[in-house]
Amino acid sequence: MPSGLVLINGNILTMDPDNPRASGVAMRNGLVVATGSDDTVRAAAGPGATIIDLNGRSATPGLNDAHCHPMGVGYALADVAAGNPPCESIEAIVAAFQTRAASTPESQWIIGRGYDQGRLSERRHPTRADLDRVSTTHPVFLYRACHHIGVANSLALRMAGITRSTPDPDGGAIDRDEHGEPTGVLRETAMQPVEDTIGEPSEEMISHSLRLAGNAFLASGITSVTEAVVRRPEEVRAYQRLRQNGELGVRTSLMMIIEDTFDALASLGLTTGFGDSMLRIGPAKLFSDGSIGGHTAMMRRPYEGTTDTYGLWMQEPEGMKRDIKRAHDAGFQVGVHAIGDAAIDLILDAYEEAQSDNPRSDPRHRIEHCSIVDIETIRRIKRIGAVPIPGTSFLYYFRESYINNLGIDRIRYAYAMKTYAHEGVVAAASSDAPVVSLSASVGLGMMMNRLDVAGRAVWPEEAIGLEDAVRAYTVNGAYASHEESVKGTLKPGMFADVTIFETDLEGLSAGEVGTVRVDQTILGGEVVYSREGLTQG
User: Fold this and answer.
1) What is the mean pLDDT of each run of 10 residues along the chain (537 residues)?
2) CATH 2.30.40.10: which residues of the chain?
3) Which of 27, 59, 205, 484 is within CB 3.0–4.6 Å of 478 for a Cys-Cys bond?
4) Class of domain 74-198 as given by CATH
C-alpha cells in the first residue's frame, strides 16, 4: 500500500466553508491530511506518496447517493432493459423480451425493468396480451420504472393464481378490462403473488448483484450510498460477507424495513449507526404511498382527469404512525417513502407526535423522495427538523408524467433545491436507481438547469449553482445519515473519498455538467476506479 496519495494542480471543491477551494489534497491512512496549495499538500504527504496531476480538472468529495437500491441496480443489469432508451414503444419492449426468450429455457422467468408509459409512443401500459406475444411457455414480468407497478403475461398470472375473481389486496389494485378480466397490470401489493412465485434471490445472487452495482456506482464517482430496502437476513448476510471480504465497493447504510426487521433489531438493541465506516445500519423504513406515474402516490386532490383517484395508502395511516413511534422510541432514525402531499402531511404529523411524546436530540427523521410539497410544507419540514431526500433526477426523466398526472402548478416545489436551501432545509440528493439512472452527473446537471431529457424547462426558478449542487451530493448526504463529522468535505481528518471529473466543472454549462464523465474515484485514499483509456498527465 502506498504511503500516501496526493492530488495537485486541480480545481478542488472541498466543500469546507473555511477553505472552499484548493489546488491540492493530501491523503494518508485513509484520511485527508491536508488541503491547499500544491507545495502544502506535497509536504504534508511526505516522501514516497503517489502524485496525481489533475491538470486543471475538478475534484470533489466522494459523491453520496442518499437513496438508491444497489441490489436492484445489480439485478437490473442482468434483466431485460425496457426503459426509454432503448425501448421507445411497446413493440420495442416486446422485441427485447423476444430476444431474451430465444436464449432462455422454457418455463424459466424472463424479467424486465424500466418502462414508463408516458414516454412510450403508445402512451399506455403494456398488457398481458402484449407480453403473451413474447412467449406462452415462459412466465414474463415487466416492472415499470418506479417499481410500484408491474405487468405479467397470462402464464405468469396463472402461476400466481391471479384471476378475474381475485380481489384487490389492501394497498394494491389489479387493473381489469371491460369484462372484469385482469389486464396484466398490477399495482403495488397486487404484484406480491407474482413476486412470491418468482421467489427470492439467493445470497449468492444478491452478492453478485452488489458487486456489479458497486462497480457501477464507483464509475459514476459515488463513494457512499444508502440502500433503500433491506428486508431479508440473506440480504444482510450478503452485505456483511462482501464487507468482510473487502468486496463491498462503496460505503453503505442499510435502510431496514420496519415490518420485516424491526423486532429482531430492537430485541438486540441495534439501531441506526451500528456498524463501521463501510457498512452500517441506517434508518428504519416504511412505505406510506406509491408513485405519481402509477396514480398510487397519495394526494390531497384527485389526479388530473379523475374525480376520485387520490392514490393508495400502503398501510392504514394509524398503523403507520404506530410503526414510526415504535422505531422512534427504540432510537432509530426513521425514513418513510412519501411522494404525494397527503402522504407527506401524514408522515410529518407522525414525526411531530413521536417527538412530542418522547423528545430526542436531533433524530433527523427523513422523508424519502418528498416529491409534492408546497412552501408551507417546506417550512414545516424545517420546524420539525426532518430531512427530505429528493429524487434529483426524477423530473429529468419523468417531467411529462408528472405534468400529465398532476398539472404544472402542483409540481412547483417538486425537488425544489433552491427553496429548500433558502428556507434552511438540508436536502440530500439521490437517484433512486434503478428507477432512473444512477448517474450523479445527470443529477448535478438537472439541479443546475431544471431541464428534462428533451430540453424542456420545469420550474427553472429552482435551478441552483454548481457549488450548491455538489453540496447536495456530498455535505447534505453525509448530514442525512448523521455522518457529517467523517465525510462530505475534504479537510484534515475526514475520509479520503474523492471524485475526479474529466474537466474543470466550473468551465461547463449546466447541460455539459449533466454529461460530464468521471475520470477516477478514490475511496479511503485508494484509487478504486479509473475510466477506461484514461491517461495521466
Assistant:
1) 84 97 97 97 92 98 98 93 93 97 96 93 96 97 94 97 96 96 97 96 96 97 98 98 97 97 96 98 97 95 97 96 98 98 98 98 98 98 98 95 97 98 98 95 98 96 98 98 98 98 96 97 98 77
2) 5-61+494-530
3) 484
4) alpha beta
Q: Please state whether beta strands 58-61 and 11-13 pair in parallel, antiparallel, or not at all (unpaired).
A: parallel
Q: What is the reported pLDDT for 423?
A: 98
Going by C-alpha positions, the residue among 6, 3, 2 that lies closest to residue 490 is 6
Which of helix, strand or coil describes residue 27? Answer: strand
Cell 400466481 appears where? 160
Cell digits for 426? 438540508
Give span(s): CATH 3.20.20.140, the chain: 202-480
Which CATH code of 3.40.50.11540, 3.40.30.10, 3.30.70.120, 2.30.40.10 fits the domain covering 5-61+494-530? Answer: 2.30.40.10
* pLDDT at position 512: 97
One-letter-per-residue 3-state SS of 241-257: HHHHCCCCCCEEEEEEE
SS3 523: strand
Please give the backbone phi and psi of residue 429, each rounded to the nearest 5 degrees, phi first: -70, 145
Q: How far is CA 167 from the centre of its chain?
A: 32
Torsion 155-160-161-166 (CA) sign: negative
pLDDT value at residue 505? 98
Q: For helices 440-449 and 466-473, what crossing angle results, to 10°?
A: 140
- Quote the pLDDT of residue 1: 41
Query: What CA–CA distance (Å, rounded) separates 450 from 511?
Result: 10
Omega before 2 cis (within 30°)? no
**Hey, what amino acid is at 391?**
G
What is the β-pairing status of strands 63-68 and 21-22? unpaired
How many angstroms separate the CA atoms of 121 and 118, rounded? 8
Which segments of 407-525 does DSSP mark as H helices, in order?
417-422, 440-449, 466-473, 475-480, 510-513
User: Domain spanning 202-480 has what CATH number?
Assistant: 3.20.20.140
Q: What are the strands of the beta sheet with 149-152, ordered from one edge? A: 80-81, 110-115, 140-144, 149-152, 182-188, 172-176
Measured CA to CA, the distance from residue 103 to residue 105 in angstroms comes to 7
Q: Which three cell numbers stand for residue 200?
A: 427470492
